[in-house]
Inverse folding.
């Protein structure tokens, strides 16, 4: 069939698809909801790993995927519920036909009010059909809006990282990076204003001259070239315009509701970090689970230690390596290789040099860290390690022969600096009980 929009056969074919699209919508929604509930746990796990690794790029990506997951899931569940209601209404219409208000024997006041507010049953079916089709389309439009926002965020991030490079001269930062940031910032504001006002900047001649260059660039950055026909098809009807005004407050309200909870104590909180009086799940290997999959700063095997030694794992963070370079400037490479890299590019630190420097690297870490049980200080002897969750870090073992039975607190402290001032900062306090076999 020739797909000519002006061809009568093609139009008739589209009309048939339009009438039968509800079947495809339900099939897609059902499979999509099933798949969405299968992938949310891997997304959460990857997001937590990215945050623990201080991987800014992956953190933004997975947070965007999580928001997309919530948008699609909520909308598709609402779509399935309304479609089920619509199918039930169609079946009831086949059995009972229209609403016959006269047979209800209501008073004239109630009958008149119901005829005005409820109307005909066919109108009710048509309204359900309209909302079902609109929700299905809006679901994917919102996801595209979110992806466009992520692309713009990545642009700002890449420009900022480029400006932070020490080997970049000042004139490119002044004449290239800063104008790009200003252009993107103005474009983001104007695009948001145009979206909220439903195209007001496109209606006036003087605003068109100002807005068009930004519009031309941002239609690619926001990926709107893929979905613009659907947006304009929404905006050319009163219903579509009203829906745009409803969607944003609706999702802000849902976000607010998701952030609410119930507290049972003024002092106790299940999200409390470990300290001298609190044992957090993220600081003991045997309490890590699906909700808390990664070590928070440091961890020990269990709350109760029965062996004559204590295994201490300290999680790695990019800020730790910054401090290593501060306290041992000989370890700092000519070019920092952290961040995005190419698989075909060679690192500036060769394997032989990296192997030689690893000993000095660990020695610097050992000098930076102080592990204390109550008031007894221990000098750590670190080795590079990964825990069972594949979290990077370094571990050591402490001799507990001189530690009495009972409750103790492991304090993990690290040398830090504020400009040229050096001080010892407490990273985490982890309580435990020592009862040797």
């Amino acid at each position: 069939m020739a797909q000519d929009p002006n061809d009568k056969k093609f139009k008739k074919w589209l009309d048939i698809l339009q009438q039968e699209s509800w079947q495809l919508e339900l099939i897609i929604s059902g499979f999509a909801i099933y798949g969405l509930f299968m992938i949310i746990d891997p997304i959460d796990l990857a997001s937590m790993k990215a945050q623990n690794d201080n991987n800014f790029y992956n953190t933004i990506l997975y947070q965007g995927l999580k928001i997309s997951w919530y948008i699609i899931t909520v909308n598709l569940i609402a779509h399935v519920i309304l479609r089920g209601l619509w199918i039930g209404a169609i079946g009831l219409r086949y059995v009972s036909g229209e609403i016959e208000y006269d047979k209800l024997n209501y008073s004239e006041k109630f009958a008149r009010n119901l005829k005005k507010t409820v109307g005909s049953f066919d109108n009710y079916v048509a309204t359900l059909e309209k909302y079902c089709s609109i929700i299905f389309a809006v679901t994917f439009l919102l996801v595209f809006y979110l992806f466009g926002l992520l692309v713009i965020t990545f642009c700002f991030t890449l420009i900022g990282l480029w400006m932070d490079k020490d080997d970049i001269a000042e004139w490119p930062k002044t004449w290239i990076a800063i104008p790009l940031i200003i252009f993107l910032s103005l474009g983001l504001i104007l695009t948001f204003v145009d979206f909220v006002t439903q195209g007001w900047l496109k209606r006036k001649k003087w605003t068109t001259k100002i807005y068009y260059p930004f519009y031309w660039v941002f239609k690619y950055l926001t990926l709107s070239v893929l979905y613009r026909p659907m947006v304009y098809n929404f905006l050319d009807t009163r219903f579509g315009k009203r829906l745009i005004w409803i969607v944003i407050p609706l999702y802000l309200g849902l976000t607010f509701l998701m952030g609410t909870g119930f507290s049972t104590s003024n002092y106790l909180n299940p999200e409390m970090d470990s300290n001298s009086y609190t044992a957090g799940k993220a600081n003991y290997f045997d309490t890590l689970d699906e909700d808390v999959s990664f070590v928070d700063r440091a961890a020990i095997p269990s709350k109760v230690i029965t062996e004559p030694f204590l295994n201490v794992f300290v999680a790695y963070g990019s800020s730790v390596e910054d401090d290593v370079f501060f306290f041992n400037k000989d370890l700092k490479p000519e070019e920092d290789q952290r961040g995005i890299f190419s698989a075909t590019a060679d690192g500036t630190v060769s394997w032989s040099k990296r192997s030689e420097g690893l000993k000095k690297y660990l020695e610097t870490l050992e000098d930076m860290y102080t592990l204390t049980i109550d008031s007894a200080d221990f000098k750590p002897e670190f080795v590079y390690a990964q825990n069972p969750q594949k979290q990077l870090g370094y571990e050591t073992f402490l001799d507990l022969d001189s530690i009495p039975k009972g409750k103790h607190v492991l304090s993990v402290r690290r040398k830090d600096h504020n400009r040229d001032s050096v001080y010892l900062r407490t990273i985490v306090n982890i309580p435990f009980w020592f009862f040797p076999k």
Remarks:
- The first helix runs from residue 8 to 52.
- The longest strand covers residues 421-434.
- Residues 281-333+350-434 form a domain with the Immunoglobulin-like fold (CATH 2.60.40).
